[in-house]
Amino acid sequence: MNTVTTKPVVIFRFLAHEGPGYLGDFLDTQNIPWQLIKVDEGAPIPASILTYSGMVLMGGPMSVNDDLPWLAPLLQLIRQAKDNDIPLLGHCLGGQLMSKALGATITQNAIKEIGWGEVAVSKSDAARHWFGEIETFNAFHWHGETFSMPAGANHLLASLHCQNQAWSMGKHVAFQTHIEMTPDMVKKWCEEGEAELRESASSTLDFFKGVQQSNAMQENLAVHCFFLNKVATQVYTQWIQGLKS
């Protein structure tokens, strides 16, 4: 299925190793142009979203409650996209940014979630729109905070340790979890997050009981990513239907 659009999808990156991942591969397969804005390298936030067909926000280690120079203009751009019916897609930090822009709050999750863990799909028409017949799947997590639901949002996913794993609002969808992972990304994140994982391994705090170690995350990695990519294909296929031409 090909979606025709002359405008590119804009993808915001906040950390070098937290790029588009499988989403980039999917867009290429669909012949959908996309532009990567490297916020982590100081790239400016565009003043207008109207030259883009869709807006994607990736993950990152910062908090949306931090005093970040790019935060206010990016939140305004998110609201501009919603007001102009330009589809939004957020992954982890990206989902939190969408939530904050639309009036929700972002707080510390009860525990930190890192690694593979099952999420359950909500039993609703909105959830079926995005996930089809999928009822549960093994998602990838790396977060310590969580978002509340913006007014008017539909709940989509929940996990054992985090009730709000995804929401949708019309053609917009926000994830706390990561559906964009590839094997190389998981390996790189394990390398970059070595200190955080080591800290959790030596901690007895409940905050860390949802954390897998690197060897567990990489066991049967190709299989885990294969099935996660199938879920992502389902979601992304629905999302691109709303792209502005």
Characterization of the model:
This protein is an alpha/beta fold and 245 residues long. It has one domain (9-200, 207-242): Class I glutamine amidotransferase (GATase) domain (Rossmann fold, 3-Layer(aba) Sandwich). 32% of the residues lie in helices and 25% in strands. It is built from eight helices and ten strands. It has helices at residues 22-29, 71-83, 93-101, 125-131, 183-192, 194-201, 214-217, 221-239; strands spanning 9-13, 34-38, 54-57, 88-91, 106-121, 136-147, 154-159, 166-169, 172-175, 210-211. Strands 1, 2, 3, 4, 5, 6, 7, 8, 9 and 10 form a ten-stranded mixed beta sheet that branches. Helix 2 packs across helix 3. The longest helix has 19 residues, at 221-239. The radius of gyration is 17 Å and the shape is globular. 42% of the residues are buried.
Please describe the topology of this protein.
Layout: E1 9-13, H1 22-29, E2 34-38, E3 54-57, H2 71-83, E4 88-91, H3 93-101, E5 106-121, H4 125-131, E6 136-147, E7 154-159, E8 166-169, E9 172-175, H5 183-192, H6 194-201, E10 210-211, H7 214-217, H8 221-239
Parallel strand pairs: 1-2, 1-3, 3-4, 4-9, 5-10
Antiparallel strand pairs: 5-6, 5-7, 7-8, 8-9
Helix-strand topology string: EHEEHEHEHEEEEHHEHH
Name of the CATH first level: Alpha Beta
Beta percentage is 25-35%
- How widely separated are the two ends? 16 Å
- SS element count, helices: 8
Structural class call reads alpha/beta
